[in-house]
Amino acid sequence: METSAKRKKQKTIKYKKVTFKITDKQKKIIERVCKKQKITSNRLIKKAILEYLSRYANLNANEEIVSKNQLKLFDDEEDDLDFISFVADETSNTVKD
């Protein structure tokens, strides 16, 4: 009887290095929060990024993020045509009068 089963080879995770600058004040705040929560600054930043990205997990990489307040000026051609016909009717009525 064989006690050790064959293990599946784990997929290797590839990491990328990201660098950015923060102010001294931001760094001090991060250090204070890390000390209070007893975690490293690297872990805090990774958690914050994961939380932010979880909101947009269902988006494709190529999909644009449009805020709620973004105007949709050129999306509806029917509305444009209705407006153009309305303006044309109004100008023809004023010319006849």
Distance between the termini: 102 Å
Mean pLDDT: 76
Radius of gyration: 28 Å
Beta content:
under 5%
Q: Major sheet: size, sense and barrel closure?
A: none
| Poorly predicted ranges | none
Determine the number of helices (DSSP H or I, runs of at least 4 residues).
3
Overview of the structural elements:
The structure is a single chain. The chain is an all-alpha fold. The chain has a domain of 37 residues. It is built from three helices and no strands. The radius of gyration is 28 Å and the shape is elongated. It starts with 23 loop residues before the first helix and ends with a helix.
Quick structural summary:
This protein is an all-alpha fold and 97 residues long. 51% of the residues lie in helices and 0% in strands.
